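note to self — DONT lose this again. spent like an hour looking for the file last time. sequence + predicted structure for the chain T wanted, 762 res
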Amino acid sequence: MNNVVNGTDRTTAANAGGTWRIFKGKANDGTESTTLYGEDRDADIAVTLLMQGSDLPRIVQWGRPMAHPEYLVNCNDAVRPQRVSGGLDDTDWPSIIPTQAEAWTGSDRLVLRRDGVELFCRFSMTDDPIAIDGRRVAITAIDEVQGLALLWECEITQSGLLRQRVRLSNGRSTDGSESDGSRAENELGTLSVDKIELAYPVPEEASEILSTTGHHLRERSPQRQPFNIGRVERLSMVGRPDFDASLLMTAGVPGFGFSHGEAYSAHVGWSGNSVLSAERTTYTQGLIGGAEQLVGGEMQLGQGESYTTPWVYGSYGEGLNEVASRFHGFVRSMHPLFAKKPRPVILNTWEAVYFDHSFDTLKALADKARDSGVERFVVDDGWFMHRRDDTAGLGDWQIDPAVWPEGEKSLGALARYVHALGMEFGLWFEPEMVNPDSDTARAHPDWIMHANRDRLPMQGRSQQVMDLTNPEAYAYVFDAMDTLVDSLGIDYIKWDHNKLVTEPVSPYSGLPCVHAQTEAVYRIFKTLKQRHPGLEIETCSSGGGRVDLGILEFADRIWASDCVDPVERADIQRYTSLLVPPEMIGEHVGASPAHSTMRATSQQMRMAMAFFGHLGIEWDLQKQDDEALQRLAQWVEAYKRNRTMFEHGTVVHADSSDPAIRVDGIVSEDKSHAVFRFTQLTTSQHYPVAPIRIPGLDAEGAYTVRPLSVSLDLDGIGNGQSELGWWNEQGSVLPGEFLAECGVRPPSLNPAQAVLFELVRV
């Protein structure tokens, strides 16, 4: 039965380019079917949902917009699997929440219990289940027998992301209230939610998986593997995504790269425990997705109560650059004030002075910072009570008069001095943690998370976790921060989180509490920023341990890694940028040798590697000679000339078969200007290195390609013995197509060196 139905067009003013269309018809077997087609042609993305009978919807297409979506009414006949031998009456064909009732034989994706007994659910859509509001479609369904209701939402963002989430209610009403005719409350009982995992299907050709792993000082290291039958998952159960978390779970055609090959990525927008997964069964195509990973007993719903999952995001693109661009557009939309204020150059005091705080020391450092072009001066760990090292004082959020006495050498005096120099003032906190050796812990041992009254969880960095789900502990931490922001005129907070959250039970509630703790953190971020307009907050978690779209809704910057060694940072920053736009990635110029690795690198390499992100300095400038300081000031000025483009442009990483090199760049929105970095990490098999392709430009344009002024001089960093024709102030003019297909020969560099060059459309 071929159905051609004029779909109901649900374009609204709120859509701003997004459209949902509904088509109704019948399959050849007589089954009533409804097809929902959503697209945004400006973002070049579309998704097709199929509902047959009263079954939950299935995502059957995800990719580019279609010329004739009206024929999708026939997609049920096109893609519904046949019954096969040895299986069930229906072959597995996963819905948005696959269950055994619809023949799902893979890993559990909906885990619910009442009184310790697992529920086996079958949801049916309600009457008139579809509601469309702008870019978002909502579908309601119930399980009559189990007394459950769910609301599934799917949205197409303006940047071309898909995102979906579920609200599950203990009761038959999707708004969480109990509807007429349902079970009595004493029959319904408490519902324990252990897991609701959402996913996106990928085509059979997407048979290779890319994820990232890592550890402290080496976050987001890429790894690839075949997408075989079975399940691959990246699980985090330490209260944060953590160092080895994969920001994205990506499936693509074999060999996909940054600029080529279809790629499909999933991300869980949540800052607590989570799982990312890729799974194939014998019967199904691949699924990529994830969930909040709840601890047993953590999410218990009484009559009429609901649990809402985090958003699970999907990004599609021809290559990872397009996948990343969709995430960048979405994150930027959450921070509209960035468009009005260039990202200030930062100096952070940590690797400059560590705990050696005094007014005179930091005043002198502030003077050097101002002379180097710094615009924001951040005082790191060591300013509060009893904090002479990292073993004591954490949680005592009062200024230590032994280090910062009242009067002309107080911390307030330093803040006023920094402001008088024309710089913003920032301060470090670690609000979620406490040292047992602190006044706060001694006075309030019940504020420390622990599962056993006779012992505390294993320590990390001499720390335990402050239970922010306890209203008294929350109020203490918030009030302390709020008071200091007011009294010191703090413009910026560096928020750290250094301990793995283990045995996460709240003495206040007696229940596991990672979910509630994460929501409390979000609430502090949000409330502080509401009370102090213009306040910015950086999220740091032993470096890059908490990077996700949940925290990025509130945070203005992430600290990618505690390692500022530029060789290590080459890939840390590259793979962090799959999710985070460059202007929100903290990238600092540090000392040589690097404090984290003891690797010695040139000042040129360290500055070039920090150039594309949110530029910062973490270096004791008081110990540098005039030549080094002058060179630093020149680089800071070059950064300021280009940072507006960095804050709005498209991040581009070039593919190369040479593992010794990296080519990274940012192209302006109108493609009239670009800045690229060429990095020689180690020696290459090719000598000199082969020409490097420059993707992301206007193929029909022509560009002058030339070194950035700060990289013009190759003396001491290069080993070429003759001139490179385009490496001069005039450069060379070349077609955009030539640059993309053939490229330019980079300068021959020594290992662990990098240079910058720009392209300007003529």
